[in-house]
Amino acid sequence: MSAFTVVTPAPRDTWQRVLSNDRDALPDQAPEWVDALVAGGSYRDASRLYSFADGREVVLPLVRRRGLIGLGGWLQSYPSGWGIGGLVGSDASADIVSEVLGDLHRLGMQRVAIRPDPRRWPTWDGARNDGILAIPRRAHVIDLAGGEDAAWAKLSKSARRDVRAAECAGIRIETGHSGAHLEDYYGLFLLSVDRWADRQHEPRALAHARARRRDPMNKLQAIARHLGTRFVVTMAYRGDVPLAGAITLFGQTAHNTRSAMDRVRIGSTRGAVELVQWTNIKMACDLACTAYHMGESGRSTTLSHFKEKFGARPHDYAELRLDRLPWSRSDAAVRAIVKRIVGFRDV
User: Fold this and answer.
1) Which listed residue, of 91, 297, 326, 337, carries a Cα 20 to 30 Å from 71's Cα?
2) What are the structural domains, with CATH classification, of the chain?
3) What is the pLDDT of residues 283-317, one digit of tens each?
4) How big, in percent rounded to 5, are the helix, strand and coil portions of the chain?
5) How are strands ordered across the β-sheet holding 111-114?
6) Distance, CA of 282 to CA of 173 (rounded, Å)
7) What pTM does this model have?
8) Span 168-189, average pLDDT
């Protein structure tokens, strides 16, 4: 392997160039996303530009959180609830991934966590060693090769029927850039939290506290402010009543990062959720995105089935952890105990 140099934080002009030359890069991997992340004050930009002697360049978006009593600390790409990180750059081959993992290990941090692009997991999997903890994940992605016509053909018959039914029922779609419609979306989000809490046998107060900690309104507003027109809120209304909504990020690819609905208000009205998704898929095709990421699915068969209605394919991958101490295993053990105490059911 050729020698390499590291510059941190990564110079923005180089980062933007590497990003723009990578047709599969996610909008979460843009420097503006890190700007939104560090705006809250808990993290600082620790992105790393790797330049190799043979001319190849990649960027690893990273943020750093201070460790206990100021020692060690965590490097994350990214923290929980902050999307997909991993290497940016068309040069990110297995040998480069191996060198990057070795470099991160030598930093001696308390923890390094990387959640790579699910479609690029084989490259990461082939480069990691047995000392790296892999936490299994599953995500769904639609390949947008062929444009809108090909995307429509990938929809299941039931999905196409639902989209047409919503259009015939007069469901109104509005899209807002740079944070427009966030208030309406957030109201649906909190209603969805109640529904998830009931299904998971979790106290609603606890569910709301977790949800507001993970996704406070000021976090979403910061993302909207930094991403501008690449941050889109798509809402479905019946009259002036919001029924369903989604937040989607646009760049080289699209990432439907959050969705919510009011199941009670939707009632027997078919297709509001499907029409929101199809609107975003069409927008991604119009912007020449190469893929439409539909986010984490876990092991939920219901969620997987819904996403596969749109032609999304499952990608099994893993979040990688380099821990100096057993932070990840301890955290998992504590969470399991709390879930047993409250009778939490994973669904």
Assistant:
1) 337
2) 4-131 (3.40.630.30), 141-316 (3.40.630.30)
3) 999 999 999 999 999 988 999 999 999 999 999 99
4) 45, 25, 30
5) 44-45, 63-65, 74-77, 111-114, 313-323, 133-143, 291-296, 254-261, 241-250, 231-238, 172-177
6) 13
7) 0.91
8) 94
